[in-house]
From TrEMBL:
It comes from Equus caballus (Horse). Residues 34-171 form the Lipocalin/cytosolic fatty-acid binding domain. This is Lipocalin/cytosolic fatty-acid binding domain-containing protein. One of its GO terms (cellular component) is extracellular region. GO terms for molecular function: small molecule binding.
Length: 186
């Protein structure tokens, strides 16, 4: 049953790629994703997942495309006022990929947003208790223009996320003290 649900979710997310015109999706060179990124926004239809101490409240540091068609990413999270480094290896297949977490199965895709300076990670979680969708907006710089922020808000609102469930991460502590040193706190 779990496998069937995962396959259905993967098919639905990948199928949206063709019909969804509100997110800029192109066959981009996955190697262009490599480098430093900054988390700008989190948006979800289940807000507690992205609020402080939420399981999906993470801050991107670096993403690398590896030779074996997988992605390596370093995220940071804040738990009880301490910051921790969260390395992640993820097998990729074009724009769609999947993994398993404590929250259930995640199916996600990475989309360019106008150019290679901004990307959107769109994740659908298939938890048996409470499935949800999540959007993460990353940029090459620590902040972006108000116009770009407005465009992202419009995109996620079209996908059913209410404005109250969009968190502007540029207004909070994003764990910059761990950025680049590769050392997690004990």
């Amino acid at each position: 049953m779990k496998l069937l649900l995962l396959c259905l979710g993967l098919i639905l997310v990948c199928a949206q790629q063709e019909e969804n015109s509100d997110v800029a999706i192109r066959n981009f060179d996955i190697s262009k994703i490599s480098g430093e990124w900054y988390s700008i926004f989190l948006a979800s239809d289940v807000k507690e997942k992205i609020e402080e101490n939420g399981s999906m409240r993470v801050f991107v540091d670096v993403i690398r495309a590896l030779d074996n068609s997988s992605l390596y990413a370093e995220y940071q999270t804040k738990i009880s006022k301490e910051f921790y480094l969260l390395p992640m290896d993820q097998r990729s297949s074009e724009l769609c990929s999947f993994s398993s977490t404590d929250d259930g199965y995640n199916v996600f895709r990475i989309s360019e947003f106008e150019n290679d300076e901004h990307i959107i990670l769109y994740l659908v979680n298939f938890d048996k208790d409470r499935p949800f969708q999540l959007f993460e907006f990353y940029a090459r710089e620590p902040d972006v223009s108000p116009e770009i922020k407005e465009e992202f808000v419009k995109i996620v609102q079209k996908r059913g996320i209410v404005k109250e469930n969009i968190i502007d991460l540029t207004k909070i502590d994003r764990c910059f003290q761990l950025r680049g040193n590769g050392v997690a706190q004990a």
